[in-house]
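Sanity check

After download, print the first record. It should look like this:
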Amino acid sequence: MGGFLGFGKKKDAPQTAEPEKKDFFGRLFDGLSKSSAKLTDDVTGVFTKKLLDQQTLDDLEEMLIRADMGPQAAAKITGMIAKDRFNREMGDDEVRRALADSIADVMKPREKPLDLTDGARPRVVLVVGVNGSGKTTTIGKLCWLLSQSGAKVVVGAADTFRAAAIGQLGVWAERSGASFVAKGQGADAAGVAYEAAALGKAQGADVVLIDTAGRLQNRAELMGELDKIMRAIRKVDEDFPHETLLVLDATVGQNALSQLEAFRTTADITGLVMTKLDGTAKGGVLVAIANLHALPIHFIGVGESAEDLQPFDAVAYGRALAGVKT
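Expected structure tokens:
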């Protein structure tokens, strides 16, 4: 797939692929440094004996659980590492490489680029998540990156609970040259979503991005409003939305799993975005999610800039999480 989300790069964008690859992995490696440092320290402690015996495997499994990978993924990865290596001597470097490969194997089935050029236009993307997950910032980054790739974008600020969210999206839309649909704080969120979808269809836009208020999974009335938004945009076109992305915050660790489970009972989640991986040592939670939920992981966020929102790459993630540079 060429370009970003299926759209071609602008003519003035860099055309040399190799520096982009280095920048991509460099940002990912730096972003996951807190998580990889935790794992590396634990690996060094576990493999003082060097021999991969049952005690070492048990210690390794506990280490992976402490790294927020959860018991199921930890057991699976430990089993992968033990295969053909049991009772063999392994140094720190070898076990980190084996760990990187095993993490990649667990996560590879969830690696799926989001192509927004596939199908009728506009492609309508609804973005959901709890308060503070980085949802509004993620939409802003997507808007900017799509616009840089030549896509015509409409943004709908349907998080009408927070004036700051409306203002933040307005800045991103203006910077990106995107059309912006918003009303005042407290306005009907479903009405904003409807207008954004209708404007995107009338303008022949490529993509419509719709923000929603942060849903607390234990607040039935907020989940009900999400359903109202879905019904509103389907009045414009029964196929809307084409994608419903759930944004999860890595810093909450295992709580991200309960959020995901709650949203899957309420909305037809089509893909995931994991943010704030640069601000936590809990990057292993994405391994747990990949192991337990058959949902595509489209993007990960490893910093503040738009370029730090990256398409998910299982091999690169495994290497960066295990601290393997080359």
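If your output differs, re-run the checksum step. Summary of this record's structure: Strands lie at 123-128, 153-158, 179-181, 207-212, 243-249, 271-275, 297-301, 309-311.
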